[in-house]
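Backbone-to-sequence.
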């Protein structure tokens, strides 16, 4: 990867993107290039530059200084590019099959150039359109097991952990995640928005003192448990896939946090897709949840035995204790994720594309109810199969009188 000094920040255009790759000599001088703006990201501009004769190309990402959801009144410092690039390079070092290669970075302009991933599809879109992506959960489990273990306090001494953490200190992004995931949805707040038919469900959530207590416990762990380098915003919209390939992208929210938060995000987004589907089409997604966890445990445990610090590995039963706590906390964080994406900022296509409207409302009520119960009952859900059984039972028992199909 190379970097250069830059001028004052300004958003790129398609012609700027072509000029940049030419200046960096990423193509031959005689190459004929085209550039297309891709996606409609809320935090980044994305460009696909390719050579017309060969289709060889690169992806250029540029961080926006604000989020498109709110606008310039909610600034997002361009400095996050430095953090994202450092996290991306570290994760690629640990799990190269699942992280894109970086060719260039300009921190002041918020620009990162990565390998061409245009042959892949956004996992969320692929799942919504009916692809089962049989290798997705195996790949995710391996990515999580390797990146979370080898950046964790269980593999590093205090000095090396502090050095890595210093490079990915990300307080602005942590504040955003904290507010959107585990604060705002549980109080009356301007970021809360929902259909009128959900008003009673939202009030129930925001007035439930036991729920607030359990969320407060999760929030404390989110804020204080600097356990490993986590992606921070891993979901099916930040994963690119084919039937045989998986790439995790957009590490702009990376920071040192609890392993359970990372796992819980994956659980939560799989569940959003589950709950948006007809009953007969849910089973393969339940298997994705189980496989993600099992492969994560396998990879994490293998690394623990091979490269774990002696102070931790010498304690009999300690690994099992850690994994048990990670799982139950992940269930709770998954519950928060369900609630956030139903009534908080940042809608998800899994829910908002459901037709007809009355079915969408029914499903969203189910999502809120399940999210509530997973947070409340997280400590009683200790195994993946039990987790899946509980979700299935909730769908059947609580809404058996409603025609979800």
């Amino acid at each position: 990867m190379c970097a250069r000094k830059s001028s004052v920040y300004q958003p790129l255009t398609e012609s700027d993107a072509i000029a940049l790759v030419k200046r960096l000599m990423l193509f031959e001088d005689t190459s004929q290039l085209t550039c297309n703006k891709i996606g409609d990201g809320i935090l980044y501009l994305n460009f696909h530059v390719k050579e017309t004769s060969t289709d060889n190309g690169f992806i250029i990402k540029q961080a926006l200084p604000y989020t498109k959801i709110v606008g310039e009144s909610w600034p997002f410092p361009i400095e996050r590019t430095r953090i994202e690039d450092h996290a991306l390079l570290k994760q690629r070092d640990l799990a190269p099959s699942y992280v894109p290669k970086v060719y260039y970075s300009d921190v002041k302009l918020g620009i990162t150039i990565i390998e061409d991933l245009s042959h892949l599809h956004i996992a969320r879109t692929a799942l919504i359109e009916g692809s089962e992506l049989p290798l997705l959960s195996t790949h995710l489990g391996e990515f999580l097991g390797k990146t979370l273990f080898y950046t964790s306090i269980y593999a590093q001494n205090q000095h090396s952990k502090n050095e890595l953490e210093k490079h990915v200190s990300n307080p602005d992004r942590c504040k955003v995640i904290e507010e959107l995931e585990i604060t705002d949805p549980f109080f009356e707040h301007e970021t809360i928005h929902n259909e009128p038919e959900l008003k009673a469900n939202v009030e129930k959530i925001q007035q439930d003192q036991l729920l607030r207590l359990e969320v407060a416990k999760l929030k404390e762990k989110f804020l204080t448990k600097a356990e490993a380098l986590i992606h921070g915003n891993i979901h099916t919209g930040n994963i690119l896939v084919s039937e045989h390939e998986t790439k995790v992208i957009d590490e702009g929210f990376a920071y040192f946090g609890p392993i359970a938060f990372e796992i819980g995000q994956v659980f939560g987004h799989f569940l959003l897709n589950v709950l948006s589907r007809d009953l007969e089409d849910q089973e393969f997604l339940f298997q994705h949840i189980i496989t993600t966890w099992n492969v994560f445990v396998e990879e994490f445990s293998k690394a623990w035995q091979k490269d774990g610090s002696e102070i931790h590995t010498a304690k009999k039963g300690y690994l099992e204790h850690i994994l048990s706590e990670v799982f139950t906390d992940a269930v709770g964080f998954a519950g928060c994720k369900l609630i956030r994406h139903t009534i908080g900022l940042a809608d998800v296509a899994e829910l908002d594309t459901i037709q007809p409207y009355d079915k969408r409302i029914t499903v969203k009520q189910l999502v809120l109810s399940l999210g509530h119960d997973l947070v409340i009952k997280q400590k009683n859900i200790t195994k993946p199969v039990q987790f899946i059984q509980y979700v299935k039972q909730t769908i059947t028992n609580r809404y058996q009188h409603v025609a979800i199909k």
